[in-house]
Design a protein that fits this description.
By secondary structure, the protein is an alpha/beta fold. Helix content is about 40%, strand content about 15%.
Length: about 300
């Protein structure tokens, strides 16, 4: 089999259903973006429906254009607009209207802004919590160029989970990620969260970009060494011909092995690992399971 021909286990069912339509209409009414849509996530319908777990949607803050140009990502680069001052309120109102149990907030990188949008991000967390004190909020944050005072703004807003993705192994940070990102910088962000709070930490790895098994293992060890609680692993899929090519389609059995290694040997609280898993895949369900295991 050609290693770069998409195998049968990567078939994607298009999203549908009443719940999917309801959420999509609410997002349009509030002029909001989700990374679920912008990044063409294959699990969009499943997560929005809340099947087998809390209903989850991932809102993308700070606009829909990014200041960085990572070679794996389908979000557009450049031409960023000024921040919408009403976005924190609009997101909080949409979350309340939809009735989500668990919300994920992420954002594009905004290196062009003073403060890189950290205070705007933190304000959105606070407004959601003010309206729904019992809702669980996960944030998937940029590296904020490793500036500790900006990461601290997110910590002080008190989300339930803070995620930051290393994306790939150390050797492949470039060409996978923008040159302004780095493995050590990402580890420093995760380390700071663990040292300065009791908030759960989480990260994600893509497989199939040219990594070796020993590099994945070392990455998992590095992540545990800085206190990461939850890790997800998924198959990289090329968004278009202009993006990074897939080096290999990794068999589901390999993902199963990494899940066992992460949980049983390296003692992550929880690991979701599979070809179609993405950073926010069933995020609410993972949080609940991780929390129960710890308690």
């Amino acid at each position: 089999m050609n290693s770069t021909r998409k195998p049968e286990w990567l078939r994607i069912r298009p999203p549908s259903g009443e719940r999917f339509t309801e959420i999509k209409e609410t997002l349009r009414d509030h002029d909001l973006h989700t990374v679920c849509e912008e990044a063409n996530c294959p699990n969009l319908g499943e997560c929005w429906s809340g099947r087998d777990g809390p209903g989850t949607a991932t809102f993308m803050l700070l606009g829909d254009r990014c200041s960085r140009g990572c070679n794996f990502c389908d979000v557009e680069t450049g031409g960023m607009d000024p921040l919408d001052p009403d976005e924190p309120t609009n997101v909080a109102e949409a979350v309340a209207k939809i009735g989500l149990d668990y919300v994920v907030l992420t954002s594009v990188d905004r290196d062009d802004l003073a403060g890189q949008g950290a205070s705007h991000f933190a304000e959105t967390i606070r407004q959601i919590k003010e309206r729904q004190p019992d809702i669980l909020v996960e944030v998937l944050i940029p590296d904020f160029q490793g500036e500790e005072h900006l990461v601290r703004q997110i910590i002080e807003a008190e989300p339930d989970v803070i995620a930051h993705n290393v994306e790939t192994v150390s050797r492949l940070q470039w060409p996978v990620r923008d040159r302004r990102a780095s493995y050590e910088q990402s580890l420093s962000v995760l380390r700071q969260i663990e040292q300065e709070s009791d908030i759960y930490t989480k990260t994600s790895l893509m497989l199939g970009v040219g990594e070796y098994h020993h590099e994945v293992y070392q990455t998992l060890r590095d992540l545990r060494s800085v206190g990461v609680d939850v890790v997800t692993l998924g198959q990289y899929l090329q968004p278009s011909r202009s993006h990074l090519e897939v080096a290999k389609f990794v068999h589901p059995h390999v993902f199963d092995t990494w899940e066992r290694v992460a949980e049983e040997e390296l003692e992550f609280l929880y690991c979701a690992s599979g070809p179609m898993v993405r950073s926010s895949y069933r995020a609410g369900e993972l949080f609940v399971k991780a929390h129960l295991r710890e308690s």
